[in-house]
Amino acid sequence: MNLLLLPHSILCGLVLCDTAASLVAVYRAQCLLREMDGRAGDRQSQRDGELQARRDTLEALAAQLHDPRNHTPVAPPPGLPKPGLNLSKRSHALRMHRRGEGAEQIASALELPRQEVDLLLKVHRSVLSSV
Questions:
Q1: Is the pLDDT of residue 107 over 70?
Q2: Using alpha carbons only, how large is the chain's radius of gyration in Å?
Q3: Cα 82 vs. chain centroid, distance in angstroms?
Q4: CA distances from 23 to 1, 34, 37, 101, 113 (A)
Q5: How far apart are CA 89 and CA 29, in angstroms?
Q6: What number of CA atoms fall less than 13 Å from residue 131's CA on the CB side?
């Protein structure tokens, strides 16, 4: 269709309708942009709040770490047991027992727990009774 053949009033009406539709599209685009900026701002403020909370937690932990009153003595890890009754201590304990010394004296002299010495003596008596 040739636009020059249309009456002037129809041509003006089409231009006005196109202009109005363009303005509505631009207005709607601006509304959508404002809405997206608002959501982005909300998300950013939420992230900032979470970040600040993490910073506060980290600062509190750092303060606890640097406060000497919070440090409790740390026990050594229960990795290897303390050397106990080896063969030489065992034979020495049995010799002391044959000489008539008590379990308490043997434990203190050899720096062994009393329970280990008692167990050794019970096992020794058991072995002797079975032989």
A1: yes
A2: 46
A3: 32
A4: 26, 16, 21, 110, 94
A5: 91
A6: 6
SS3 category, 102: coil
Give the pLDDT confidence of 16-46 residue by residue, as tens digits.
999 999 999 999 999 999 888 888 888 888 8
Within 10 Å of residue 85's Cβ, how many Cβ atoms? Answer: 16
Give burial (CB, 10 Å; 0-12/13-18/19+) of 103: buried
Mean pLDDT to the nearest integer, 84-111: 86
**CA separation (Å) from 94 to 43, 73, 115?**
78, 38, 15
Alpha helices in the chain (DSSP H): 8-66, 87-98, 103-110, 114-130
Closest of 83, 88, 91 to residue 113, by C-alpha = 83
Q: What's the rounded Cα separation, in Å, for the pair 72 and 65? A: 11
